[in-house]
Write a structure and sequence with these properties.
Shape: elongated
Order of helices and strands: HHHHHHHHHHH
Strand content: under 5%
Low-confidence stretches: 198-205
Helix content: 55-70%
Oligomer: single chain
Largest sheet: none
Protein name: Helix-turn-helix transcriptional regulator
Pfam families: TetR_C_36
InterPro entries: Homeodomain-like_sf, TetR_C_36
Number of strands: 0
Number of domains: 2
CATH class of the largest domain: Mainly Alpha
Distance between the termini: 60 Å
Mean pLDDT: 91
CATH architecture of the largest domain: Orthogonal Bundle
């Protein structure tokens, strides 16, 4: 309509623009982002705190719905097998995301720092999300984890990191099948009950 003005950019605009750049497999540069938004670098830094905090938020904005979809797809399973399947699907989706793989490949040191340490809130958020999955099964009486909920969730996250980032950490090939086997062992899921892959094929523990 005549007289209407474009909404003024803000921190949410910056996150959305950075997310588009990341999903396109391009490097998120603060100068380019500020120019796209029509603001100064100082304003952009004031909004998002810097490149690393912004990247952590962008990656979490992609990770959270990915994990949610993985859990929903595993609804046919129950208890430990459901969690093995959900975490396996989540890992497969992560390993198959070209933008994520490109980021880890081209900026490995930053990626590991933001995703696997306390340098950003990403890891703690993922642990909290895993805790929710564990509690759902525990409250339904379908799971008795070997450790406390938090410790089990933290262990599952660390195990997931080991296999998802295997190429960067140890020069090994990332292998979601091995991750499923490891998760099944931690949750004491019997052999043959470790869920299915994203394409529906059985995944023995």
């Amino acid at each position: 309509m005549l007289g209407e003005q474009e909404p003024r950019p803000d921190a949410l605009s910056a996150l959305r623009a950075a997310r588009r750049t990341f999903l396109a497999g391009r490097r998120v540069e603060m100068s380019e982002l500020a120019a796209e938004l029509g603001v100064s670098r100082a304003t952009l830094f004031r909004w998002v705190g810097g490149r690393d905090p912004l990247l952590a938020e962008v990656i979490w904005s992609v990770t959270e719905p990915t994990l949610r979809r993985a859990a929903e797809a595993a609804e046919g399973e129950r208890g430990g097998p459901r969690l093995v399947d959900a975490i396996g699907r989540f890992a497969e989706a992560t390993m198959g995301a070209s933008s994520f793989v490109e980021f880890v490949r081209t900026d490995s040191e930053r990626a590991l720092r933001l995703l696997t340490t306390r340098a950003s809130p990403f890891q703690s958020r993922l642990v909290a999300a895993f805790e929710l999955l564990l509690r759902e099964e525990m409250q339904a009486g379908r799971l008795a984890p070997p450790l406390s909920v938090h410790d089990t969730a933290y262990l599952l996250v660390r195990i997931s990191e080991t296999y998802v980032y295997a190429d960067v950490i140890a020069g090994e090939t990332p292998d979601p099948k091995k991750l499923r086997q490891a998760v099944a062992a931690i949750l004491r899921v019997p052999t043959g009950c470790a869920g299915r892959s994203a394409d529906g094929a059985s995944r023995p523990a």
